[in-house]
Structure formats: structure tokens, C-alpha cells
Design brief:
alpha+beta; 5-stranded mixed β-sheet; binds zinc ion; elongated; 4-stranded antiparallel β-sheet; 13 strands; about 220 residues
Amino acid sequence: MESQKQIVDFAISQKELEELGCPVCGYAYGTWGFMGGGGVAVGCGNKSCQATFYVLGDGINVFDGCSFSHKNNKGEYIDIKPSLKPHPRRGIPAWGKREDRRPKKGGEFFTNPKESTYKHGLCFICESSCRLPVDVEWPMKRLFSISIETACVEAAKRICSMFRKAKLWTTQTGDGTQYPMKCYFVNISSCYNHRPNLLKLREVAEKEGVITDKVLRKIKALK
Ligand SMILES: [Zn+2]
Ligand SMILES: [Zn+2]
């Protein structure tokens, strides 16, 4: 028999979610679901829990004007209207949080470059919009953007400010379906002319995994 994933029929506050995590297992991450009535339905990100629970914005005690339909263990649909209750794990901090780590020798971790699906970047060198020669098909544009996944928002902000300091352009985006943001992506794009600079940057991410001010200056000076 397929195990029944737990549905928590009351709501916790956003503040307690941040401190204490999932009301069932305490895991710090999950996925936002339906949003409305002053709160949100959430799916726990712990694979062995996957509970569904409800979170209300600070100062809100009950979902306003909406209820949620769930199958009970007899297979019948029931409506629930979650109201605020104290978090069942008070006193136990959330677990599984990602650490904000930095390389010992300075710089920032800058690893695992992926093709970016973020297609509206400006060239990180000359800030011209990333237009390709007309004979290059639109999907090819991806070849001119890379995306770096960072461990936390603080790391992403620091990387972007390193680029800014070197007068280089980046875009920072978050994964909006996750709470708290699981990671932030730093996207870097290049125009056709500055593709060698971007390829060099990708190589640094692949081979060294750390970005420093010095490396950025060198990459900027390439072309
Ligand atoms: Zn859980
Ligand atoms: Zn350029």
C-alpha cells in the first residue's frame, strides 16, 4: 500500500516556519503551493516526509475566504480551513539548512556552471544586449549564457557585487517555487564578440570553482 503523506490541517506562522521548519519533521526547505487568503499551502522538501501544511502570514489567524480539499484515508474528499496553531516543534530549530561557506583563501565559490535559461541578460563585458547574428536560431542563444547555482542568497549577492566592482554585469534570480529560496542563480551572458570571455569564465567555474577579483580582472582584459 502506498504510504499516506501527512496533511497537517492547521496552519503555522511564517515566522515559525523560518525558525522551526516543517511542523511534522522540522526540515528547513519545501515548495510553495497554492497561495491565497493570507497564506500558502506548502509541500515539505524532506523526501521521507513530504507532508502538506499551511502557513499564514504574520498577524493572520485563519485563511480568509478559502478552504482546501483533501482526500482522507477512506478516500473521501474533505474540506479544511486551516487556522493558526503553535508550531508542534517549538524549541527544536529547523534542520538541513545550507551553510554560507566561503573559500579559505578568499574569493567566492563559483562552481557547476550550467546553460542558463535566463535569456534577457546583457553582455557581462560590454553590457550590450545579447543579440546574435540573425542566422543563429533563438535556442542557440543559450550558448551565450551561463548560470551558477549558489548555496544561499548572501553568496549570490557577494558574487554579484564582485562583478559590479569589476564593472561587469550579472543578473541574479531566485527559484521562486522554493522556501526559503533554496539557492540563488547568478546568470552571466555575453554578446557574440565577448563569447571567449564567457567561455573563460565557465572554464574557471569548471576547473577552479572559486572566483576572485583578480580572475575577474583578467577575464575582463581578454578582449
Ligand atoms: Zn516534513
Ligand atoms: Zn559584449
